[in-house]
Amino acid sequence: MNTSAPLDAKQAEERVLGWQTKLHRWAGEDREKRFGDLFNLVCDPATLLVAWERVKRNRGSRTAGVDGITRERIERQGVQQFLDELRQSLRERTYTPLPVREQAIPKRGSGKVRTLGIPVSPPGFRGDGFDWFPTFIRGARFGTYRLA
């Protein structure tokens, strides 16, 4: 689905929700169905814009990743330019994510620690942008259970 970017986030959200709804329905109707066009949906400007809007609302987006880039810096340099460059690197298959920054967080009472991963720029896109479509397919096929 090669589409031009919607001008506003509301239109983008509606478009992405429509895709998610269809994928969920199709996956539930045919458990053997293969989805070969997910890459184009992930690279679509609407998907990237919706992912950006979700990241922007995330409290953790104020924290820089291992590359030192923050959400505020991207906003100063231009969100649309950032999304266009990200889309181009995805389509050309030159995008390589950096490793997450890890922080040890102590658990209460046990003296043990757990590792918290802080994603790098594009902030949160792996979780917020790229995992939506497979999640809707898995949900239709395997129920709403979460793996911990």
Number of domains: 1
If you average the pLDDT, what whole number results? 75
N-to-C span: 33 Å
Stretches where pLDDT falls below 50 for ≥5 residues?
144-148
Question: What is the helix fraction of residues, given as a range?
Answer: 40-55%
In short:
By secondary structure, the chain is mainly alpha-helical. The chain is built from seven helices and two strands. It has one domain.
Model description:
The chain is mostly helical. It has one domain. It has a two-stranded antiparallel sheet. A hairpin with a 6-residue loop joins strand 1 and strand 2. The longest helix is centred in the N-terminal third of the chain and has 21 residues. It starts with 8 loop residues before the first helix and ends in a 6-residue tail after the last helix. The relative contact order is 0.18. The C terminus is likely disordered.
Label this structure with key terms.
148 residues; mainly alpha; two-stranded antiparallel ribbon; 7 helices; disordered C terminus
